[in-house]
Amino acid sequence: MKYIVVLGDGMADEPIKELDNKTPLMVADTPQMDLLAKKSELGLAYTIPEGMKPGSDTANLAVLGYNPRIYYSGRSPLEALSIGVDLKPTDIAIRCNIVSLSDDDKPYEEKTILDHSSGEISTKDAAVLIDAVRKELENDLYKFYVGTSYRHLTIWDQGEVIDLVPPHDILGKVIGEYLPEDNALKELMKKSYDILNNHPINIERKEKGLNVANSIWFWGAGTRPALTSFEEKNHKRGAMISAVDLLKGIAVGAKMKVIEVPGADGTLHTNYEGKAMAAVKVLLEDDYDFVYIHVEAPDEMGHQGNVANKIKAIEFLDQRVIKLVYEAMKKSGVDFRLLVMPDHPTPIWCRTHTSDPVPYILYDSTKEQDNQWMYNEVEAKATGYVVDKGYEMVNKLFDNQ
Ligand SMILES: O=C(O)[C@@H](CO)OP(=O)(O)O
């Protein structure tokens, strides 16, 4: 038996007025997910433990079977594992976004945050900007490392885990009240604006009408994580396919195989087919038992508040990932169980995450069901199946309960 998770980041949503009070999942043309839903258990899963913040860190740990209350020690330390930075016990890892602030004459505190992703800047351009920041601001206490696209890393030697606001939670707002209380971190952010706003890369971006990448933004602080190995825990050899350091870092921590897919970049235009084919290969040719395919695009489109592109991202996931994996597995004749779900909702109305339960499909090629339901939030709720503890989902997938 082979085991597959397809994780559509932020795919769940709420009814939207312009969509006749339907959700993007209800409106999207998803014949593959609907076919699977008919043959499967359909239900709702709570991936965010009560009282915890609805981050992709917490939710994906849960879907991989790690109780966030035990294993969560911050987002950035997980990403550091993927970036290859070995944290000392006294190091604090902090996510260092490159964001777009309003390019006006107002003091830093009065600027508005326009985009947490600087127009999904390329890693190549971002690396040049992080280098410019590093030259001016790095010292014995603060070190800067390049991650992927707008997502980078700062290590604060002998620092503290302090509460910092994720930039995607405050899009369109004046930043003053959301800046770090820690003065040193705030100063680094302020100085970064002076370094970056008129950097040649940003002058070019302005000319091209692209969002400028003119400030760093700190959030997601934490300490070195300690995950039990996935194989020890589940007696399954597991592999991870994702564009983002968060998921790749969780996999490094869990001693899973990390598969790099060329062209997988976390955007709407990622290499969907490449991810699907890499998953099939690791299961059928390399004989791994479990693969986790993470697709970031629906979440990013949610953060952008772009309903048409969120629908597109869901349709791409359906036709260019799930369909390919399903058909290749069927053709191989190997039995498999397939779990399709988001980690959390990223509703268009709020452009950030919520803690609501998410719809899941659990398919078993050896026990096909014959139901009438389709894959969406409303029908998943109507079935009455509920998984209260998201971190038990893998046990369901492995049929271990
Ligand atoms: O990587 C990030 O900065 C965030 C926002 O895009 O991702 P997610 O919403 O998946 O936590």
Keywords for this structure?
Alkaline Phosphatase, subunit A, binds 2-phosphoglyceric acid, alpha/beta, five-stranded antiparallel sheet, 15 helices, 2 domains, eight-stranded mixed sheet, 401 residues
Within the CATH hierarchy, at the fold level, what is the topology of the largest domain?
Alkaline Phosphatase, subunit A
Number of strands: 13
Q: Please, what is the average pLDDT?
A: 97
Q: Give the radius of gyration.
A: 21 Å
Bound molecules: 2-phosphoglyceric acid
Largest sheet: 8 strands, mixed
Number of helices: 15
* Count of folded domains: 2
CATH architecture field of the largest domain:
3-Layer(aba) Sandwich
> Could you give the order of strands across the largest sheet?
9-8-10-1-11-12-2-13
Given this structure, which CATH class of the largest domain is correct? Alpha Beta
Could you characterize what this model shows?
The mean pLDDT is 97. The chain has helices at 24-27, 31-38, 56-63, 68-71, 76-83, 123-137, 183-196, 200-207, 230-234, 245-253, 272-284, 297-304, 307-332, 377-382, 393-397; strands at residues 2-8, 41-45, 91-101, 113-115, 142-148, 151-157, 215-222, 238-241, 257-259, 290-295, 336-341, 358-364, 386-387. The protein starts with a strand and ends with a helix. Strand 8 (238-241), helix 10 (245-253) and strand 9 form a beta-alpha-beta unit. It folds into 2 domains: 2-72 and 227-397, Alkaline Phosphatase, subunit A; 83-222, no CATH class. Helix 5 packs across helix 10 and helix 6 packs across helix 7. It has 401 residues and is α/β, with parallel strands linked by helices. The strands form 2 sheets. Strands 9-8-10-1-11-12-2-13 form an 8-stranded mixed sheet, sandwiched between helices. Strands 3, 4, 5, 6 and 7 form a 5-stranded antiparallel sheet that branches. The radius of gyration is 21 Å and the shape is globular. The structure holds 2-phosphoglyceric acid. 2-phosphoglyceric acid (2PG) binds at residues 9-10, 55-56, 151, 168, 299-300, 303.
